[in-house]
Amino acid sequence: MKLKRVFAAVTAFATCAALAGCGATAAVSESAVESVAESTVESAAESAVEAEPATDESADTDAAAEAALRIAGLKGPTTMGLVNLMSDEVASNYNFTMYGAADEIVPLLVKGDLDAAAVPANLAATLYNKTNGAVEVACINTLGVLYIVENGETVNSVEDLKGQTIVTTGKGATPEYVLRYVLSENGIDPDKDVTLEYTSEATEALSKVQAGEANIAMLPQPFVTSALSQVEGLRVALDMNEEWQKVAGSKLVTGVLVVRKDAVENDPEAFAAFMDGYKASVEAANNDVEGTAALCEQYGVVAKAALAQKALPQCNIVFETGDEMKNDLATYFNVLYAADPASVGGSLPADDFYYVG
Questions:
Q1: Which helix (H) or strand (E) holds 320?
Q2: Over 70: is that where the pLDDT of 6 sits?
Q3: What is the per-residue DSSP string for 50-69?
Q4: Which candidate, 321, 146, 298, 306, places its Cα nearest to that of 221?
């Protein structure tokens, strides 16, 4: 049975405010995920006691709703690859819901109110650890979206950052770990050879560049595209995805699709069909940039289609599965774990974290 698509798009924020968080990692603490996980059994039991007997009609409706795969997305690159599937005729088989922040998704996924979600990669690892392996990663959907921008012409390699001040967001989170790793692997001591100045939002980092208080910043897409149009002389100096690959030997990961294992086990064929549709959706995102950009605005993934169209080619939207996915994620998680074990939930995910189809 085809089911009615549910897409609850949240109201778009002001352009810069929305974009500032697009490349950010999950702002969800390890303890928050753990707390939600621990309360799941108790709340589920209470709900069962309070629930009233359903009528035959409502039971049919509920059964139909439960049959649909319930998928959550976040504003920004991690959901860009899904929008073509959202608009496809088979989308009636899925319930798509947009959220403004990862901490809105976590409790719903842990409690089983969602089946799958496009989230930052390290959040997927944390969820795996704090739910005792109840979730797995189905695919990588977004590679690196961090870029070094400069108002000037002095930075043409990582080595050129020595002695410079770099303004960025993400202190104590993956942007910091990525930057420090790339600097260290290029012989630059992050604590002695450069000055790292952290801001709470990308808009604040940009304002420092605009005011002439800083010439170099590390920003995420699609905010970079917006920033380039706002600051005369600003240019992309370094692609952190490329710099990561040079030193790590794998691709830098931003986002993944995480799924509850029970949702896959309940109907493996249905989930496999969804994955086929997702793959086709990502291919469309990379081949039909204009059409995808329009859908990004329609579904509230990016505030404006024009901005999405410019940013999409730099957002590294992919559909990566199998051994390639495992290799890229394992390398990424190893770097994060070495910097701060809590960033991946306290331990590295085991082999059963990786969906094999």
A1: strand 317-320
A2: no
A3: HPPPPPHHHHHHHHHHHHSE
A4: 146
The Cα-based distances of 243 to 12, 186, 211, 230, 237 in angstroms read 33, 9, 28, 26, 11
In Å, how far are 4, 263, 273 from 91, measured between CA atoms?
A: 8, 17, 12
* Rounded Cα gap, residues 120 and 251, in angstroms: 15
**42 contacts 110 by C-beta, under 8 angstroms:** no
How far is Cα 22 from Cα 161, in angstroms, rounded to an integer? 25
Residue 32: Cβ-neighbour burial (10 angstroms; 0-12, 13-18, 19+):
middle
Q: What pLDDT, on a 0 to 100 scale, did the predictor assign at position 67? A: 67
Quick one: pLDDT band at residue 59, thresholds 50, 70, 90?
very low
User: How much is the mean pLDDT over the chain?
Assistant: 84
Structure tokens at 101: 């922040």
Average pLDDT value for residue range 187-209: 92
pTM value > 0.85: no
Better-scored residue on pLDDT, 220 or 66: 220
Paired residues of 23 in beta bridges:
none
